[in-house]
Amino acid sequence: MRNFITRLWRPALALFIGVLLAGCEHRDENAYQGYVEGEYVYLGSSQAGTLTQLQVARGQTVKAGAPLFALDSVDETAALKQAQQQLAAARSQLADIQTGKRVPEVNVNRAQLAEAAANARKAALQLTRDEAQYSAGGIAKAQLDDSRANADATSAQVRQLTNQVEVARLPGRSQQIAAQQAQVAAAEAVVAQAQWKLDQKLANAPADGLVYDTLYRLGEWVPAGSPVVQLLPPQNIKVRFFVPETRVGALALGREVSIHCDGCAADLTAKITYVANKAEYTPPVIYSNESRAKLVFMIEAHTSAADATKLHPGQPVTVALK
Q1: What are phi and psi of 212, to 5 degrees?
Q2: Which fold has domain 28-38+234-321?
Q3: CA 9, CA 6: separation in Å to the nearest integer?
Q4: Whole-prediction pTM value?
Q5: Does position 21 have pLDDT exceeding 60, yes or no?
Q6: Does domain 42-75+195-232 correspond to CATH entry 2.40.50.100?
Q7: What confidence category does residue 24 fall into, taking pLDDT thresholds of 50, 70 and 90?
Q8: Could you count the other beta carbons within 10 Å of the beta carbon of residue 307?
């Protein structure tokens, strides 16, 4: 009986070993298992607010510069208008200092100067007559002194008004102008800050890509810094695969590899863009009974942007070295 059983299982065992060896002989040493990885761009705002517009949907492809979402901006708009008005006031004050007094004000000073000059001439004539009268003994010494004092006063008034006319046509002092220029610069900085905060309430796509997900709904409060749209540009799609230590030395940046995936019409070409410098154990997501205990090196490769859209994060692929 034992001999009969032995005659039965020995051929079966031989067949199994033969199949196993055949499978090992046909295993492609240049092919490795891998998967697709996506590096997402999380787009949010530095300012908090209620989500008022969501102009994209999950799964949509957008172009660079396309509007994505908007938050309410009532406060930011009002702050910008206030800053702009303050800047306009500061600039007007600077222009006023730089140009001196207005023409009507200068004309008033000139009229006052003309009146003072006429009074000075009149006082000078009166002084001349009084001096002659005093020499002839016709007036007292006190009356002559009054005439001299009046002539001196009117002459001083002429000099004073002459200086006022000249000053009225001059701009402000350099210190005043510098101080006002600083006020204008400060107001311009406030406007720039208010404009930046307002711009932060709107978000546009930084590059072409796939809207992988939207993380808030209309009407929800979005905290500052929280992402609203999860974008996946094609250049951020890459393939990760793992090679044993014996093969990593032959791999260099820029080397071409072939990517095979289920559902792809044809294999894709990619270039190695990263070679890990530290070994690790085969990741559980792709290990097999043969390789799960082996140390390997992670390799990353990128396809062209056009081919990258044919791949999907998490998709298993087979990578063949060229």
Answers
A1: -75, -35
A2: Elongation Factor Tu (Ef-tu); domain 3 (2.40.30)
A3: 6
A4: 0.65
A5: no
A6: yes
A7: very low
A8: 17
